[in-house]
Design brief:
The complex is a heterodimer of chains A (about 350) and B (about 650). With about 350 residues, chain A is mainly alpha-helical. Chain A has helices spanning about 15-35, 35-50, 50-65, 75-85, 85-95, 100-105, 115-135, 135-140, 150-155, 165-185, 185-210, 220-235, 260-275, 285-310, 315-320, 335-345, and strands at about 1-5, 235-245, 250-260, 330. Chain B has five domains: about 1-180, no CATH class; about 235-395; about 415-505, no CATH class; about 505-580, no CATH class; about 595-655. Chain B has helices at about 5-15, 35-70, 75-105, 110-115, 130-145, 160-165, 185-230, 235-240, 250-260, 265-280, 285-295, 300-310, 315-330, 335-345, 350-360, 365-375, 380-395, 400-410, 415-430, 440-450, 460-475, 480-485, 490-505, 510-520, 525-540, 545-555, 560-575, 580-590, 595-610, 615-625, 640-655; strands spanning about 115-120, 170-175. The chains are: A mainly alpha (about 350), B mainly alpha (about 650). Chains A and B meet through helix 3, helix 4, helix 5, helix 7 and helix 13 of A and helix 2, helix 10, helix 11 and helix 12 of B.
């Protein structure tokens, strides 16, 4: 396994803006996300209730058949299976229904037939679920088909769904953000972070279709920083942390590889996510990542072009961190060497 | 490959023959800085997980999506095509990467990472395209051979693995971690490991793989059979075409309900039929009643549907049926009988089918027979009628007649249904014990399982238990559990079979603990739990175990199996001198027309020993002297003690 390490996580003194962004994210998580866990549980319980899913699935299938212009051929086929009596397919459609903005908007006013018990139970469950969803930070601060005003394009970047989501984004933010902040300054970093995140939201809305599931998380913004960083450093070798599943000193440590490797690995996995998932099942947040990466890369290219035009590209390169030859390694157990090299790259 | 330069090789041979080490004859005029085996593994890790994994993930993404959609759309052809493409792309991507990197750079990225490279043994240059290709194919073939060729890295003189030898190459290291030829110890150890793996692991792995393949083939086959089998939504059309059901506008749904009650229609089909009416905005009591059955696993929802039926249509047949279901659930048989009398004049087929099944389960054979006769004979219900007829006859103790009816019915049934009927009969035969068992039905089960060209599966607990007991009654009665497990359908039956196999090797108290786990696990069928109770009763000598079964038994649903366990429980309680519990069990059994002499004698005995002489006399008078319910003939095996007690009772109560 391999992860970008660069200069590791730098101190608050060296990268104050990066740490401020991290602190805001953590505060939002502690003060807003954690208290709303009970609402998340209500939504989860509803999505595990097979009767609710079956009824909703049949109604959604009816809705799809009645409004074929909104939907793709695969969804129409699954809907037909559900209407032909398949209980399993009804449950699948029930899960997909909450991802469909049209159904969520007009479904509860639609006449689905005579089963009053199913109608009553579905309506009350749906109402309960929608109320719980409206109390969730993702609904209030996220970007979605229903809520895509200018403010939510910024606020969504500070809300995370769970601890793992938050931790992963913050670690990458600290690694890329801290180094970039030292190179381009705090204000520029904030601008790229927020701007890249906003572009990510725009790309998400462009490709997501009519989904009411909101986009949240700093992934788009962090991807922008990463894209910017990779363009800026290009072929320059930077430190990566590696572990090759062999518990011996030669097989774990730091290795120097070109910066563009990060961009390549990141965008490959995002593209695989985009092409590997049916659009009805989501996988749409990958588009936000790609949007962020491309916007960051675009800004990086513009900056390089500007310096080239100014004729001070060589001076600009002097600002970059020290490097070592390709594939050169630093083993963790070689304490004196490790210290020497770590002090050198910092 | 090596032979093409044999002349050169031969010319070098003499100068090195004195070294006398294995492998030196093949190549050997130079000692290269060889790559350490761990470095080579690390290079493979880099290639597979860091380089190839993301590239392959992207390359197969469209096929992954196709796989997902074909599963959702039940499209087997698309699934197979997508799977084949996916495998092809994975293989081609790997092959191209390895070949091109080795050809152009003499090392893959993983090798570069570990500072290794591939050189030809003849000129120490990087291999050409052809040899790179050969090397890559052989490298991938290593996976097919479970990585066994990699052991050569510890035994070959130049640590050359299969793919190195095929392509006349050797992997050398450019950093300090280089190694020489393997030591004698390393060589011997690796050969030992290799021989050990070949001798032990491969046969086991091979047989397991074959078992897995057979199992997969059988699963696929049985899946196809189920899809093409007789349980299909078309049965509704057949029943309507036969004129089997008449009930006005709801006729189609009524037909579906009848078939569903007979086990000849899936839940999905019944759901489809009821939704078809709802989607036309037609609300009928039967539609809601059908929904209550569809959602039986969700009692809250099911009750909502049932309540609505009687609230909106209090005079409807469906409301009557609703009340019937509710009373049945409460074990209120008096009300059940009254309700059944009310509907006896009407022709409601689904009710008759349902009542037949329920009455048979609870052991009311005469009533079941009456309802069975009211079901009109037709093709779609023929299997159900024949099967229930056998059950009724058996329940009424007309065993020979039941066997004859079954024998006639077998020829009209498909193999799977034949197995179900023969399995049920075999189970009933085996309950009476080995000496009284007639082997025909069990023999048929065995034939169907072992010799039938069409694959059949054991789907009911009765068939499984009947077969297991029948084999244990045979003189050479050893059961091949793994083979039988492959013939078993539901998971709970497979688990029970595993419990039986596992318990064979265990001590008595461990066996009891194992069967107690089955009794307390509601995932197991009630027939299996009753069988476990019987096994515990035959094994235990502790009153605590028997009392625990007594508690479970008291709250269990009454039926044939319940009676069998009850009788054994009664015998055990009497032998352990727990007369109070024995009396409770015995009275319950006697109320259900259980007329075994041993039971009734035991009842009088228990009552007397508890000091309840008046009650003992009452029981004796009721069962041994009462002409109305049929006097019980005294057994020749009646104990002297019983004779003494009867004399004392007569002396006390008759003389006065």
């Amino acid at each position: 396994m391999i992860f970008p390490y660069l200069r590791g996580i730098l101190s608050f003194r060296k990268a104050p803006m990066t740490w401020m962004i991290v602190i805001v994210n953590v505060l939002v998580f502690v003060l807003i996300t954690i208290p709303s866990q009970s609402n998340q549980k209500i939504v989860r319980d509803k999505l595990n209730d097979s009767f609710f899913l079956q009824v909703q699935g049949r109604y959604f299938s009816q809705f799809v058949v009645d409004h074929p212009e909104f939907y793709g051929s695969q969804l129409k086929q699954i809907a037909q299976f559900s209407l032909d009596g398949s209980i399993a397919k009804s449950e699948v459609m029930g899960g997909l229904a909450i991802r469909d903005a049209y159904f969520m908007k007009w479904g509860d006013t639609y006449d689905f037939g005579g089963d009053v018990i199913a109608n009553q139970r579905w309506m009350s469950s749906l109402q309960e679920m929608n109320e719980a969803r409206q109390e969730q930070p993702s609904h209030n601060y996220g970007v979605s088909f229903f809520k895509n005003d200018g403010i939510s394009w910024i606020t969504y970047q500070f809300v995370h769904s769970g601890f793992t989501h938050l931790a992963a984004n913050m670690v990458y933010l600290l690694i890329f953000g801290a180094l970039l902040e030292m190179m381009i300054g705090s204000f520029s970093l904030l601008l790229i972070y927020l701007g890249g995140g906003a572009v990510g939201a725009g790309v998400f809305l462009l490709f997501s279709g009519a989904t009411p599931i909101p986009l949240i998380g700093a992934s788009g913004a962090v991807s922008a920083l990463m894209g910017f960083f990779c363009v800026l450093l290009g072929k320059r070798n930077v430190a990566y942390l590696y572990f090759l599943f062999i518990p011996s000193k030669e097989y774990m440590g730091l290795v120097y590889l070109p910066a563009w490797v990060t961009f390549l690995l990141w965008i490959l996995s995002d593209l695989a996510g985009v092409f590997g998932n049916m659009s009805e099942f989501g996988g749409i947040a990958y588009t936000a990542h790609i949007g962020g990466q491309l916007s960051g890369a675009g800004v990086g290219l513009a900056l390089l072009a500007f310096h080239y035009w100014k004729g001070d590209l060589k001076n600009w390169h002097r600002m970059l961190p020290p490097t070592r030859p390709l594939f050169s390694k630093v083993y963790f157990v070689q304490e004196p060497t490790r210290r020497r090299i770590l002090s050198e790259i910092r | 490959m090596v032979l093409e330069d044999q002349e050169y090789f031969l010319s070098q041979k003499s100068s090195h023959s004195s070294r006398g080490q294995r492998g030196k004859e093949l190549i050997p005029w130079k000692s290269w800085p060889l790559a350490a085996p761990l470095d080579r593994i690390a290079a493979s890790v880099v290639d597979l997980f860091i380089v190839l994994a993301p590239v392959i993930a992207l390359a197969i993404a469209p096929f992954r999506r196709d796989l997902m959609s074909s599963v959702l759309l039940n499209d087997r052809t698309s699934f197979t095509v997508a799977l084949l493409f996916l495998v092809f792309v994975v293989l081609m991507t790997t092959l191209m990467y390895l070949t091109l990197m080795t050809w152009r750079f003499g090392a893959t990225l993983g090798m570069m990472f570990m500072r290794l490279s591939v050189i030809r043994i003849w000129d120490e240059q990087r291999p050409d395209l052809y040899h790179s290709f050969l090397r890559s194919v052989a490298w991938m073939f290593n996976f097919v051979l479970l990585g066994l060729p990699n052991i050569s890295a510890f035994s070959n003189h130049h640590r050359r693995i299969l793919h190195d030898r095929i392509s006349d190459t050797v992997v050398v290291s450019h950093h300090s971690n280089k190694v020489g030829s393997p030591s004698f110890f390393e060589f011997s150890l690796s050969r030992g490991v290799f021989v050990g793996i070949i001798a032990l692991v491969i046969p086991v792995f091979g047989s397991r793989t074959m078992q897995f393949v057979n199992l997969a083939v059988e699963e696929v086959y049985s899946l196809e059979q189920t899809q093409e089998g007789d349980i299909s939504c078309k049965n509704v059309d057949e029943l309507l075409a036969d004129g089997g059901v008449v009930n006005g506008q709801e006729s189609r749904l009524a037909a579906a309900m009848t078939l569903y009650a007979a086990g000849a229609l899936t839940e999905a089909c019944l759901n489809f039929e009821s939704d078809a009416l709802f989607s036309k905005k037609i609300e009928t009591p039967l539609t809601y009643f059908a929904k209550a059955f569809i959602y039986l696993n969700n009692p809250e929802v099911s009750n909502d549907y049932l309540n609505l039926v009687c609230k909106r249509w209090p005079e409807s047949d469906a409301c009557l049926m609703t009340q019937l279901v509710e009373k049945w659930a409460e074990n209120d048989f008096e009300s059940v009988n009254k309700l059944l009398e009310r509907v006896s004049s009407k022709r409601i087929d689904y009710l008759n089918v349902w009542a037949t099944r329920q009455l048979l389960i609870s052991g009311h054979f005469d009533e079941a027979s009456m309802h069975l006769e009211r079901i009109p004979p037709n093709q779609a219900l023929s299997r159900f009628i024949a099967f229930q007829n056998v059950k009724v006859l058996w329940g009424k103790k007309e065993k020979q007649k039941a066997r004859s009816v079954a024998s006639v019915s077998y020829s009209h049934l498909v193999p799977q249904d034949r197995l179900s009927m023969a399995g049920w009969l075999c189970h009933q035969e085996s309950t009476a014990g080995c000496p009284e068992m007639l082997p025909e039905s069990c023999q048929l089960v065995q034939d169907l399982l072992l010799r039938e060209p069409v694959q059949v599966k054991i789907k009911s607990a009765e068939t499984l238990l009947g077969y297991v007991r029948a084999v244990s009654c045979e003189e050479s009665g050893s059961l091949d559990y793994p083979t039988l497990a492959r013939k078993v359908g539901p998971d709970s039956l497979k688990k029970y079979l595993a419990v039986l196999e596992f318990s064979k090797e265990k001590k008595v108290n461990e066996q009891i603990e194992l069967f107690q786990l089955v009794v307390s696990n509601l995932d197991f069928d009630s027939v299996l739990r009753f069988d476990s109770q019987l096994r515990i009763l035959s094994l235990t000598t502790h009153l605590k175990d028997v009392e625990s079964i007594f508690k479970d038994w008291s709250i269990s649903v009454e039926g044939q199996e319940w009676e069998n366990v009850g009788f054994k429980l009664f015998q055990k309680l009497v032998s352990m001198q727990d007369y109070q519990s024995a009396l409770d069990v015995g009275v319950k059994l006697a109320e259900r027309k259980h007329r075994e002499v041993e039971l009734l004698e035991g009842l009088v005995l228990s009552s007397y020993r508890l000091g309840l002489q008046r009650e003992a006399w009452g029981l004796y008078r009721k069962y041994f002297l009462n002409e109305k319910i049929g006097k019980v003939q005294r057994s020749i095996a009646s104990s002297d003690e019983f004779e003494q007690i009867v004399k004392k009772l007569k002396k006390r109560f008759v003389i006065r």
